[in-house]
Write a structure and sequence with these properties.
By secondary structure, this protein is mainly alpha-helical. Helix 1 packs antiparallel against helix 2 and helix 3 packs antiparallel against helix 4. It contains five helices and no strands.
C-alpha cells in the first residue's frame, strides 16, 4: 500500500508504542495479584497484539492490512458513576521497586491507554488514506473501552477518586450556557 510520508511516520510511532504496551502487559500479567485485574489484562492483550499486527501489515505489505480491529463493547459495572463504592486509598510513589503492585500495574496501563488514545485520535485526523484513518478510529475506540474497564476496576478498589460535582458548581456552570433553538437554525 502506497502511503504518504506523514502516514508512515505516524504508523511507525504508533507501532513502537504498541511494542511498549505489549511488552509492559506481558510483564504485568506475570506480576498482577488480583484475579479480576488479571482477567482484564488477559482479555485486552490479544487485541493489542492484533492492533500491532495490523500496523505492521500497513507498514510492510503492498496490499495493506488483511484484518479489521474489533471494537470491544462498553461494559459499565459501577453502581454509581459519580460516587465511588470504596474509600479512596492514598498513594505515595515508591523509589525502590522489585515488583509492581496491582495499583501500579493498573495505573501504568490506564495512563498508557489514555496516551495511546490521544495519539490514535490525533493520527486519525492526519491520515489521508481512508482505510488507515478508519483503522485508527477503531484503535482509538479500543483504547477508550479498555481504559474504561481499567478505570472502573481502579475506582472499585479506591485507587482512583470519584465523587459527585458540587451542586453549586454545576448550577453555576449550567446557568452559564443557553440552548440554541434548533428550529431557528437557517437551512
Amino acid at each position: 500500500m502506497l502511503l504518504a510520508a506523514h502516514e508512515v511516520q505516524d504508523l511507525n510511532e504508533l507501532t513502537l508504542s504498541c511494542v511498549n504496551s505489549i511488552t509492559n502487559m506481558a510483564c504485568f500479567k506475570t506480576q498482577v495479584q488480583d484475579p479480576e485485574l488479571l482477567a482484564l489484562l488477559e482479555q485486552h492483550f490479544p487485541l493489542h497484539i492484533q492492533d500491532y499486527n495490523i500496523k505492521v501489515e500497513y507498514l510492510s505489505k503492498a496490499e495493506g492490512a488483511t484484518s479489521k480491529l474489533p471494537i470491544p463493547d462498553l461494559r459499565p459495572v459501577l453502581s454509581s458513576y459519580t460516587q465511588a463504592s470504596a474509600a479512596a486509598v492514598p498513594v505515595t510513589p515508591r523509589t525502590t521497586v522489585q515488583q509492581f503492585n496491582d495499583r501500579e500495574i493498573a495505573t501504568a496501563y490506564l495512563l498508557t491507554l489514555k496516551r495511546a488514545g490521544r495519539e490514535y485520535a490525533w493520527a486519525a485526523m492526519e491520515m489521508s488514506h481512508p482505510e488507515i484513518r478508519s483503522f485508527l478510529e477503531d484503535a482509538f475506540c479500543m483504547s477508550c473501552r479498555h481504559a474504561y474497564d481499567i478505570w472502573q476496576w481502579m475506582v472499585s478498589k479506591g485507587y482512583y477518586p470519584l465523587e459527585p460535582a458540587s451542586p453549586a458548581t454545576q448550577a453555576v456552570l449550567g446557568s452559564f450556557y443557553h440552548e440554541v433553538q434548533e428550529s431557528l437554525i437557517p437551512q
